[in-house]
Amino acid sequence: MLELSRANAGEGWSLGYGGDTLNTAIHLARAGHDVAYLTAIGSDPLSANLKPQWAAEGLDTSLVLEHPTRTTGLYAITTDARGERSFNYWRDSSAARDLFSRPEIGVALAVAAQADLLCFSLISLAILPSEGREALLDLARSVRRRGGRVAFDGNYRPRLWESAMAAAAARDTAIAVADIGLPTLDDEIAISGIGEAATVFDHWQHLGCPETIVKLGPDGCLTPAAGTIAPPEVLEPVDTSGAGDAFNGGYLAARMDGASIEDAALEGHRLAGWCVMRRGAIPRADA
User: Which active-site residues does the annotation give?
Assistant: First the structure.
């Protein structure tokens, strides 16, 4: 999505880009992995520079489809004095909602099915019609059949769902096709009232996701074997936008490199800490 952000109230807005799976993809590419991004964007002037900018980050944009009549979604970030963020969205007519209806999608899915790792989120499911949701879940199943792994983030945005019950049902279906689960405790509380990280962990594992990491914000994360792993340092965030996505990117990059779950969690914390001390969902890489 296109991203509007500003450092302080009353100042002008800056135009960038972001989105949970995109943020994670860019972090994986920055870590040196070969990453392609599957989505659809608009053909409007504001969307024109997205593919070149993503390519400059190291993403393979050959699976980014262009929609002739729809636009790319837009969101605006505001942050409070503690760096906590809130969002306003304009995405009802976004091109990504129509991704699985594009004539080029068959070829794109055949390529994506060969992935060593497929990442998607509950937001990915939320913006799609029922046929698109099932197509994405089928893609996940195909990746697993071919020996790849699937990572699923339970990002919950209530405004994207008709009810929490509908979101929970979609979440549970996605958990069942995932090898790596990346829920956030706050989201799980909002979607189903589960208030204990251990209960979230048990729920996801019971549904068939063996490697579940429950993100606890500043308190760290709960892991399968090493228990709760705290961040290496306590920070005072500037902007928490994209913190969970950065954790995902750091964690998954380390796991793909062969790191243990504990070491990968620490790498996720390190990257999330780097992110929250800078503005924007996907801050520019340091020089």
Answer: 245
Largest Cα–Cα distance of the chain, in whole Å?
52
Name the CA dihedral angle for 274, 231, 125, 173, rounded to a multiple of 10 degrees: 160
The torsion region of residue 19 among left (phi > 0), alpha (psi -120 to 50) and beta comes to left
**Residue 92 scores a pLDDT above 50:** yes
Query: What six digits make up the tokens of 210?
Result: 């063996």
Quote the mean pLDDT of the chain. 92
Residue 89: per-residue pLDDT: 67
Q: Let me know the angle formed at the C-alpha of 28 by 185 and 279, rounded to the nearest 5 degrees.
A: 65
Using one digit for the tens of pLDDT, what is the confidence trace for 152-203? Answer: 999 999 999 999 999 999 999 999 999 999 999 999 999 999 889 999 999 9
d(CA 22, CA 19): 5
The helix-helix angle for 243-256 and 20-30 (nearest 10°) equals 40
* Helix 261-276 × helix 243-256 angle, to 10°: 150
Q: Which CATH architecture has domain 2-276?
A: 3-Layer(aba) Sandwich (3.40)
Please report the pLDDT score of residue 47 as a whole number: 86
Closest CA to 184 of 209, 162, 155: 155
**Cβ-based neighbour number of residue 222 at 10 Å:** 22
196 is written with which tokens? 């204990």
Where in the chain does DSSP place strands (E)? 2-5, 14-17, 39-42, 64-67, 74-79, 85-90, 117-121, 149-153, 180-181, 211-212, 214-215, 221-223, 227-229
Q: pLDDT digits over 41-88, tens only?
A: 998 888 888 999 999 999 999 999 999 999 888 777 666 666 566 667
Q: Where are the domains of the chain?
A: 2-276
